[in-house]
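Something for you to look into today, if you have time. What I am after is a single protein written out in full by you. I want to see for myself how the chain folds. Could you add the entry underneath, on a fresh line?
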Amino acid sequence: MINIDEWLNNYKQLVSTTFGSRVLFIGLQGSFGRGESTDSSDIDVALILDIVTVKDLNIYKTLIAKLPHRERLCGFVSGKAELSAWCKHDLFQFYHDTIPILGSLDDILPAITIEDARQAVQVGACNLYHACSHNYLHGMDVAVLASLYKYAFFILQAKHFCDCGQYAKSRTALEKAVTGDDLSVLQLSNAPSLITADKFELHTALLLAWVSDLIIKDKEGDM
């Protein structure tokens, strides 16, 4: 298991030494940020510089090649102006799911509102509906269906925030807070091994009905 605090200190030192005052923000995201990491988890790091050019990306690639567990490092690299102008429904998850290591997102991002969370639910549900239908018609792929359930977790986070104004950061916290079909979808998201070929149609039907309900309720103003 990676000692994430030690790894982040090393990362921060390397990046700060290379880019200096151009580093505006470093943050940890994903399963390590939620305290749900496993031996195979990616290290999701957000790095915000003043600006980002291809030259900067090349420097960054050379830099991170020196890090242990380089193959597990992923995440988001952006310039300040681009992130500040980003679609706000996309920023909802980004803001709430990022643990600051250096700097503050409050100095970079516009204020994120409940309307941005509602839009995150709507866009996510529409994308998930399309992917779920497409997989059933043209793929019949159990692994793809499991990945769609994994994505549903993030929609559920935004939906829960819209429902009660609270952000449930971890899967455990969210599972304690939701009920009904929300809970059924989340439980499959948390245990993808339960999504099997013999239950492919059943689990597709559950997910499709759930996202359909989200889409229609949003249109009718009931969410």
